[in-house]
Write a structure and sequence with these properties.
Keywords: Membrane, Transmembrane, Transmembrane helix. This is Phage holin family protein. With 125 residues, the protein is mostly helical. The protein is built from three helices and no strands. Helices cover 89% and strands 0% of the residues. The model has no long low-confidence stretch (mean pLDDT 82).
């Protein structure tokens, strides 16, 4: 076996590894993108429905207390909405912080490939 044969095999092996890793990267990207699009669409629809329902509820409460405590009713409803908005903001912030690192599988596979290449180079050198 000549050096050129070894080099050709090594090059083919490296190219196959790179191709596999790129395919894994593509699959991870596509899966994450689809999940985010689904989350976004569902969130927007939920926001629309919740907004309509809350506006109708707000009008009902204000109409009920119009003659006696209209300012108190408006203030309480505004405070409740602001409190809910802050809670949801905190939840979204925490949820995004807990997301797994993007391309974690690809990074792990590439790190393993680098270690294998280093070990192979050490054996031959």
């Amino acid at each position: 076996m000549t050096i050129s044969d070894s080099l050709a095999r090594f090059s083919a092996s490296v190219l196959e590894t790179v191709q596999t890793r790129l395919e894994l990267f593509s699959v991870e990207t596509e899966a994450r993108l689809q999940a985010y699009i689904r989350y976004l669409l569902c969130s927007l629809i939920a926001i629309l429905f919740a907004s309509v329902g809350l506006m109708l509820l707000l009008l009902l409460v204000i109409a009920y207390y119009w003659d006696t405590h209209r300012l108190l009713a408006i203030g309480c409803m505004a405070g409740a909405f602001l409190g809910l908005a802050l809670c949801l903001f905190a939840w979204v912030k925490n949820s995004l912080a807990m997301q797994p690192k993007l391309f974690a599988l690809s990074s792990a596979e590439l790190a393993r490939d680098v270690e294998q290449l280093r070990a192979a180079a050490d054996r031959q050198g």
